[in-house]
Request: fold
Amino acid sequence: MTSPSDAPEGTEPGTEPGTEPGTEPGTVRPGGRTARVRAAVLEAAGDMLAEQGFHGLDLAEVARRAEVGKTTVYRRWGTVAGLVADLLTDMAEQSLPRAETGSLEGDLLANARLVRRTLSDPRQGPLFRAVIAAATGDARTAEALHRFYEVRVAEWAPCVREAVERGELPAGTDAAEVVRAVSAPLYYRLLTTDAPLDEDAARRAAAAAVAAARAGAFVRTP
Reply:
């Protein structure tokens, strides 16, 4: 660990520059050099997850790939689960904003295409498989994964609420459930088959969600 003489000026010994004593590893909003360190570490962690899966993720190897000190990684993130949690936070922050096409069909198709591109990406697809697999056995990773999808669903839910306001969907339609219905078949295809995630798969997912929503399948019941 860092000795008092090694700590940056103005920083309490044992903390990262820009962090507060007692904060949970991997939860601080960094700036400056700390932001560059975080970006390098998260990129290395994402690469390792895509290559080797959750159980192949090693903090010391992440530090080596990111070209930062091991002490920095262990002190800031603490555990593999803490690192993955921060990676998911960063991924949610970096995700593209929702499309606004002016129609429910167009908006949900744009969402389906974004999900398809992400899951079929040579790096992102294996990374998501690894994180989803890890979440089944690690509570902290599961919590981080839930937060990631909460952010993404919240980003796209307004397109459904706007469709309700335009009269395209029944009043009381659960916007979040409609957005989840678009992604669900694409994730199922990813995890249960070796069939490609192509444009047809994205179109079917969006069309099915639109048809079900118009039929009232997602109307909230008392």
